[in-house]
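TASK: fixed-backbone design
INPUT:
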């Protein structure tokens, strides 16, 4: 019986949060003028206790348990450089823990430096720079050069796919959105139009199966509640197609769903239940890129894809006039910041941290379920407060940049 490969991938990210009490004019550094490390430390250590340590311990135990078996457990991590910076500062042992995974059991996915929105800029020079910056950080920390990437929050269109191929990636992850797939399944490898010679594999997240864990696991109203690892493995087995891509927020395990829901036990059991089935195996993302594509995934630039919200497009970050204005503000600063950075690189670092997707995500003004999701992740009391904070910081930052240019 043929074994269907399952890629299990986790997004691991923490932003550098802005000071909500205004610009700190007494700060010794430009970073401290705008960012709140006390808040960063609080959130990072809280999530580390609830999720990062217990979840990683369980995955490592599974990797070691199956290392000498006929089928191995394999896992993939898409880790932002902002998470790595904070891990170095608050819990360096987490990086050590990830480095304990046997090489054949773990893979790392590339992404944009600081989980930024640079991929949406008209000029993609900064985006290319950030892809390579992140790649070098992953190699430095984990000794692995990523061969598959995902743009921030799975934001994708054909232009981003083209850049991915040109920057040397074998594959790129995005969302298997129905408006592009139509009747087709996400459980295949696709390619993009007009890239026969230099194209890379497009790996599509299976939204339904991923959200069964990420969103519905602890929902008592769900008709499949409670979800067990054995039941879930049977669903994977029943899925048609050549590959199953499960891609979820790492904080699903112990943070979004608390330990008391049974989510960590589910995570412990899942490798055993999946590998007990004759028709399933776990795989690294780099290895499934060799599967022949079955067709094209054509996402032109005005049909941008992401994994966010019901629309699954860029409107989680650019859905209202305020978000668009602040994004344009950030994009317009690029040339000035890079001139100043020739003498003071801190300006470039601060600007890049301000490009992190979370800031604009927190000021979305959507309704219904999307509103609840945005509010859940935000550290602002209200989107209007978020706008005021971000605008205040950006305005001050622009003035500082222009002062430097006049020197």
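OUTPUT:
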């Amino acid at each position: 019986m043929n074994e269907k490969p399952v890629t299990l991938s986790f997004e691991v990210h923490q932003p550098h949060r802005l000071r909500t009490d205004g610009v700190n004019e007494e700060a010794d550094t430009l970073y401290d003028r705008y960012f709140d490390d006390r808040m960063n430390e609080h959130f990072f250590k809280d999530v580390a206790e609830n999720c990062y340590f217990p979840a990683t311990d369980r995955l490592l135990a599974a990797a070691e348990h199956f290392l000498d078996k006929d089928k191995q457990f394999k896992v993939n991590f898409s880790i932002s450089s902002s998470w790595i910076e904070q891990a170095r500062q608050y819990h360096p042992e987490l990086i050590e823990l990830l480095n304990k995974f046997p090489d054949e059991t773990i893979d790392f996915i590339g992404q944009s430096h600081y989980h930024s929105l640079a991929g949406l800029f008209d000029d993609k020079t900064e985006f290319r720079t950030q892809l390579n910056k992140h790649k070098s950080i992953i190699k430095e920390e984990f000794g692995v050069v990523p061969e598959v990437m995902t743009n921030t929050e799975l934001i994708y269109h054909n232009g981003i796919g083209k850049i991915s191929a040109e920057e040397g990636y074998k594959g790129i992850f995005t969302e298997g959105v129905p408006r592009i797939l139509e009747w087709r399944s996400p459980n295949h490898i696709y390619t993009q139009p007009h890239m026969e010679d230099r194209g890379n594999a497009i790996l599509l997240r299976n939204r339904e199966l991923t959200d069964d864990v990420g969103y519905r696991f602890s929902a008592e109203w769900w008709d499949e509640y409670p979800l067990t690892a054995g039941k879930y493995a049977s669903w994977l087995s029943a899925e048609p197609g050549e590959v199953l891509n499960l891609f979820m927020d790492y904080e699903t395990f112990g943070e979004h769903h608390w330990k008391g829901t049974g989510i960590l036990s589910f995570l412990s059991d899942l490798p055993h239940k999946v590998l007990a089935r004759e028709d399933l195996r776990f795989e690294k993302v780099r290895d499934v890129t060799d599967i022949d594509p079955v067709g094209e995934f054509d996402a032109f630039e005005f049909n941008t894809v992401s994994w966010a919200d019901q629309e699954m497009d860029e409107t989680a970050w650019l859905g209202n006039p305020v978000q668009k204005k602040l994004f344009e503000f950030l994009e317009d600063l690029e040339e000035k910041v890079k001139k100043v950075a020739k003498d003071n690189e801190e300006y470039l670092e601060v600007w890049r941290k301000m490009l992190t997707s979370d800031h604009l995500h927190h000021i979305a003004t959507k309704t219904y379920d999307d509103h609840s999701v945005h509010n859940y992740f935000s550290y602002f009391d209200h989107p209007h407060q978020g706008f005021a904070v971000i605008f205040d910081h950006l305005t001050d930052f622009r003035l500082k940049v222009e002062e430097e240019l006049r020197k």
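COMMENT: The chain is about 45% helix and 10% strand.
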